[in-house]
Design goal:
By secondary structure, the chain is mainly alpha-helical. Helix content is about 100%, strand content about 0%. The protein has 1 helix and no strands. It has one helix at about 1-155. The longest helix has about 160 residues, at about 1-155. The radius of gyration is 65 Å and the shape is rod-shaped. The N and C termini lie far apart (about 225 Å).
Length: about 160
């Protein structure tokens, strides 16, 4: 009986060991299933985060491109406005220069006209003086002629 008892004891031991192993195996399967569920949840969460990150990256690229284009457009507008301002300033300076030159030429022409008028006035004064002198002589001469004529007329009659 001893060998049978030993066999029974070995058999019981084996069954007990198998039960323990099955319990440990069951527990391990539950842990594996729990870990698998956690991995699945984390994978899905990671995929959502990656999707959002991809969307945000695309939006950021679009925003950067749009802002870059807007900045280029504003820079072009700014350069255009600066050119217009420069042209207006150059036009203003040219207008002032032309106006100044026209004023100088006008002043020069007025001075020439003034000199011409003064020359004519001096010339006219000279003529007037000569005419006055001639007129005075003629009056004198005429008065003398009249006296002589009266004397001759008186004497001849």
């Amino acid at each position: 009986m001893r060998p049978q008892a030993a066999l029974l004891r070995v058999k019981n031991c084996n069954e007990l060991q198998q039960n323990i192993m099955q319990q440990e195996l069951g527990e391990s399967k539950r842990q594996i299933d729990a870990l698998s569920d956690q991995v699945q949840v984390k994978t899905e969460s990671h995929a959502r985060v990656e999707g959002e990150l991809h969307k945000q990256t695309k939006y950021n690229e679009w925003t950067r491109h749009t802002m870059f284009e807007e900045l280029k457009k504003r820079d072009a507008e700014k350069r255009s406005m600066q050119q217009e301002i420069q042209l207006l300033q150059e036009g203003q300076m040219n207008t002032e220069r032309v106006a100044s030159q026209a004023d100088k030429e006008k002043d020069k022409e007025l001075e020439q006209l003034k000199q011409g008028v003064l020359s004519l006035v001096y010339h006219a004064e000279g003529k007037l003086n000569k005419l006055t002198e001639v007129n005075g002589r003629l009056r004198h001469q005429t008065a003398d002629d009249v006296k002589k004529g009266l004397l001759v007329n008186f004497l001849t009659h």
